Amino acid sequence: MYVLMSQILLYSGVGKELYEMASRWLRHLPGGLALATLSCCAIFAAISGSSVATAVTIGMVAIPEMTSRGYDKKSVLGLLAAGGTLGILIPPSVPMIIYGSVTGESVGKLFIAGVIPGILLLLFFMAYAAWKMRHIKEAPATWSERWQSTRQAIWGLMMPVLIIGGIYSGIFTPTEAAAAGVVFSFLIAGIVYRSLTLENLKKMILSTVSTNAMILFIMVGAMLFGYILTSLQIPQMLTDLATAWPVSRWVIFVLINLLLLVLGCFLETVSILVITLPILYPIIKTLGFDPIWFAIIMVVNMELALISPPVGLNLFVLKGIDPTTPISTIVRGSLPYALVMILFIALLSFFP
């Protein structure tokens, strides 16, 4: 249902309205349109829970707007690749749902755990973007323009309030919140933006089915893999090895992060989660690390995987939007944001 919700919003025009609002509020600052793009990515992430949906929706609006106003193409594409990754850290988040389903941890706790790290990572990205693009400023929008764009974007802004507010006020479970989000998304697309055509509806449903089928097939394979591992007692043996190894638990933690970094270069996020969690989760618990905190560390690693060549999904999404730009240009543009993520993992480790 979260995937369906992201597809409805992808075709409804919510992203365009959000981008216009963020642009009018922030464009007068140094690198203002870059800050607006990242803000819009964060808001759309809190609506859709999908990195690909975030990168596609905001990218289609932001690339022509930013390049026409003097922003360097490489920096724009790197910014969007990184900004799109916020879709899996700021709740609702599909990888967090998968983490909860594989480990049995509370999805509600996982969602709330992602809020402050998601906002912090957004601020880190914005700080770098403001410094990098500080030479570009625009005339400020008038207050009437700002309030007008905010009124037009209000329906999109209500989505995170509905989902996150509904879960933490006790009105919805995370699953019920997804169902409510789907209904609200259909109402926005059909009544407010009038974009719910039969052709769009067909695209939404087919894309949702193919995405969910991919995730479920991976999970079926991972469950079989997990069953074999459990039967062979491999997780128990690795846990015993990790706890008996005469080194600090932080050495093992660093090795786990290096493993996730390498896997992120070759596999997509769902595959990494469902293949590694049956092994890593018992090790983490035995070493005394908090499993909710580790989930956030793991999701930030998955964000890094989305912009890690050769298989970083967001890199190819943006290549699809702007086919004339070489993939190497997008990789170079996103590299500084990858380094920011690595520093952010270190920060989360020092201040859990």
Key terms for this structure?
17 helices; mainly alpha; 80% helix; 0% strand; 352 residues
Rounded to the nearest angstrom, the radius of gyration is 20 Å
Shape: globular
Q: What share of the residues does DSSP label as strand, in percent?
A: under 5%
Amino-to-carboxy terminus distance: 31 Å
**How would you sum up the major sheet?**
none
Structural class: mainly alpha
Number of strands: 0
The unreliable regions are none
N-to-C series of helices and strands: HHHHHHHHHHHHHHHHH
Summarize the structure in words.
By secondary structure, this protein is mainly alpha-helical. The protein has one domain. The protein is 80% helix and 0% strand. It is built from 17 helices and no strands. The protein has helices at 2-12, 14-26, 32-48, 51-68, 73-85, 94-103, 107-113, 115-132, 143-168, 174-192, 198-231, 234-244, 249-264, 269-286, 291-306, 313-321, 327-350. Helix 2 runs antiparallel to helix 3. The longest helix is centred in the middle third of the chain and has 34 residues, at 198-231. The protein is globular and about 65 Å long. The two termini are 31 Å apart. The mean pLDDT is 88.
Provide a brief overview of the structure:
With 352 residues, the chain is mainly α. It has helices at 2-12, 14-26, 32-48, 51-68, 73-85, 94-103, 107-113, 115-132, 143-168, 174-192, 198-231, 234-244, 249-264, 269-286, 291-306, 313-321, 327-350. It has one domain (2-350).
What's the structural blueprint in terms of helices and strands?
Layout: H1 2-12, H2 14-26, H3 32-48, H4 51-68, H5 73-85, H6 94-103, H7 107-113, H8 115-132, H9 143-168, H10 174-192, H11 198-231, H12 234-244, H13 249-264, H14 269-286, H15 291-306, H16 313-321, H17 327-350
